[in-house]
Amino acid sequence: MRRVRVMKFGGGAVADGKKIKTVANLIRQSKEETEEKGSNGLVVVTSAIFEITDILHENASRVAKEGDVEKVKEFVNELKNRHETAASEAIGNKHVLNVVKKEIEERVGGMEKALVGICLLGELTARSLDYIVSFGERLAAPILAGTLQSMGMDAVHLTGGDAGIITNANYGNAQLTSDAEETIRGRIMPLLDDNKIPVVSGYMGETKNGITTTLGRGGSDYTATIIGAAIDADEVWLWKETEGIMSADPRIIRNARKIPYISYMEAMELSYFGASILHPRAIEPVMRKRVPIRVKNLLKPEDTGTLIGEEPEKTEKAAKAITLIENTSIINIAGAGVRSISDVAARIFSVLADEGVEVIMISQGSSERNISIIIESAQLERAIGAIQRINAEGTVIRDFTSNSDVCAMSVVGAEMAGTPGVAGEIFSALGNGGISIIMISQGSSEFNISFVVKKRDAYKAAQAIHDMFEMGM
Ligand code: ASP
Ligand code: MG
Asked: Which atom of ligand 1 is nearest to the CA of 223?
């Protein structure tokens, strides 16, 4: 059986030609190292060059609004120059460089056509937006593959679709189809059998009809774990410019510390709850196949990073990490006496789902028949519109209020399950700090305890809990 490692590099890792060279060296080193250990393959997944995805998003909307074809040309030229510069810096071999430059030119040309189309129509659909924003990864992969080639490695670049990432047409947040894994194996394994290094464009996939889709922001992680699961890789390594998964956001908590080992379930809770280190869906594919993930630090490649695996660690620490989602809003809905609480809840969640509003937390107070939900503030207006429509055909809810001055927080740790007193400790830490709690919820997995405080109390609350559980030690 083949043993393979999948390695993914984020946008910061491939920010310019010099960094791309560093990445290529890491790939070479990893290839040699894994070969020594009897492994015989490496799959590389790349993000777009740093900030390119943001730039593409901004420009696609701007172009649709302004309809200025000249400006499209200007933008396309800038984009082309930036990628050509990176290629020239990274690729030593003249012949390879010329091939890559041609590739860049062709790809950028395709994007220009699409942008001009959007310009003339003055309309940006979700489908055309996905096509445009996929160009960051479409352009990065040939440059990285070319760099590897010019260092003597046999690399080939693939788009998400080439690699078999076949998805539904849910643009902006596409889901893998059920037979995609087989397609991925069929595309990747022959390359590995041929001793090639596939360099796959992350973040993007395509429908079975060949229409480009994207997997959601930060989706290159997800590409890597999808491929890792599909080909039964030994490990998936996600290279980032951070130490690994941390006990808290180091920008907020002064003594935040790297967590050396964490279970899939815990990592999943953290990524769903605001820790921007991993794409929220990235854990799911590898968890099924028990492929370990390693989050590695580009700035300290020899560091072991964070290992994510199946078993919860045997530890004294019940609570391991704290995360917060800062831009949240609470909506309190009162239904008293009008309908049964399940009826009210059913209506609320169905209108929110129809509007694509993601609910982060729910809690229900039965005596007042009141339901509180937490959502991202960016979706508040949409949520309110949806809730207002509930009463259109007869009264279901009595009243509702909303407040954006709140922050949702979550304490995560597998050992919290069945350990009495953890919630007590969390809430005394908050009580001692004079912080009042607006809402509480705990999933029955007991892997997290989540609560909501006023925005101005959030950092203090996080520090108090981090200290209470000695998360930094
Ligand atoms: N380039 C994409 C983004 O910025 C995907 C990724 O970086 O993982 O969201
Ligand atoms: Mg990124």
From this structure: 8
